Amino acid sequence: MTLGPLIVQSDHTVLLEVAHPDAEDARHELAVFAELERAPEHIHTYRVTRLGLWNARAAGHSSDEILATLNKYAKFPVPTGVASEIEDTMRRYGRLTIERRDPADRESPLVLRSDDAMILREVSSAKKVAPLLGNKFDDHTFPVEPWARGELKQQLVARGWPAEDLAGYTPGEPYDIELVQDGWELRDYQLKAVEAFERGGSGVVVLPCGAGKTIVGAASMAEVGAKTLILVTNAVSARQWRDELIRRTSLTADDIGEYSGQVKEVKPVTIATYQILTSRRKGEYAHLSLLDAQNWGVIIYDEVHLLPAPVFKLTAELQARRRLGLTATLVREDGRESDVFSLIGPKRYDAAWKDIEAQGFIAPAACFEVRIDLSESERLDYAVAEDQDRYRIASSTLQKQPLARRIIDRHEGESVLVIGQYIDQLESMAEALGAPLITGQTPIDEREELFNAFRSGEERILVVSKVANFSVDLPDASVAIQISGSFGSRQEEAQRLGRLLRPKSTSLTASFYTLIARDTVDQDFAQNRQRFLAEQGYAYTILDADQFEQATGALSATS
Asked: Where is the Helicase C-terminal domain (predicted)?
């Protein structure tokens, strides 16, 4: 009998032996409920968390399925305590429900219910829960304060008793939206994602970059058939949503409004930026009226992993509206995944990146970490610098400029994005490469002109700041060179690789290069950044800059 690739430990960590022949299958099934914590060369460490198990339960997975996965791939028996904890944790989801007192009356008061009176007694007596509830109707039912639906769900998650919200949603003002499937149709995974959202009424759909999250949003809007508010990261993203909706649905330009720093339109379908919604004037949020400007039937949160903290507070008050979060990763560097779970909704659908790649809907990608040495003077500056300055010094080394040029020359004829964090570094790189630069200070119209020139092939190289991390559709980009980033951000790493995953007009494998200063915090942060992509099955090939020509030649010959 072949021993499996997993070692399940009593502290709820799971070790994956990377070289094992069943490692990829095990990784795929682990991703449903466990989070990758560390990914060195030979042994990857996952952790089974309560939130991961509750998300799996909300997405339709059972404790029996999860224990079957662990038992199937485990090298040694799964500790009894771990198995019991998994069963108990998943059993907690839905033991409390939020409902209407009269299910037939959509306007009737909310109640918190449980078949187990002891559970209800426990949570109702908690200091932070009690003010959200009224005087109990009976041992199994408490009234919920009208304003407290969102906060109650947050507090119940924090106490380990996530409530299933069955109270339903305001239908919103009807508005006819139809998909116009002229020469295309929803892919199987997109259809499943829409169906999962429709069943739940609120929640998050997780799909790889380039897999058509906007189409899932459009199809969900058509299913709801009501006025819709779409929240996006920036004005470029807003215009891409508008264009895609016009192309894929019966909506016209007259139906769709943009609400951003430049334009303030409210129409039956309104696309607003997070920035405008969270902007303040004299200490007050100046644009909150947008949330009530129409009787919205659904609110879509694009790139929900980037949701600004103030929007969580606003969302807590929008629990009567259907809410759809779209993202490539639920990872949040601020640790607020539980707020996404309780306020937007649980994960309703999740498709593995490699599964979508195998179906040919996103491009295959090879990831490389290329290590260089700091110059002698840079090494001295780094050695005497304060801790908070070391990453900037290391990641901005001038040694990355000639290496970036060599990589670009290596990919003659391909479209290349050079992506970084620091504006002065990007300005210097753009000058060295003779390439245009796009930053947050670049006017929206100029950005769109440069992106269009890149799409058409007129510009082969773009140097971009973090404004291109997300929601920018550049389907023919096949090479990305990452020269600096937001420290150890896993979500940013995933988004940047995602710029390359749009299906190509050629059969090219995308190439994602990260340039790293050896033996510095730049290298340390890179290891953390790579965790999410390692969880998705992407492996980084480590190269030395001095051997780059020979190494990439050998890799190309074997690919």
From this structure: 399-556
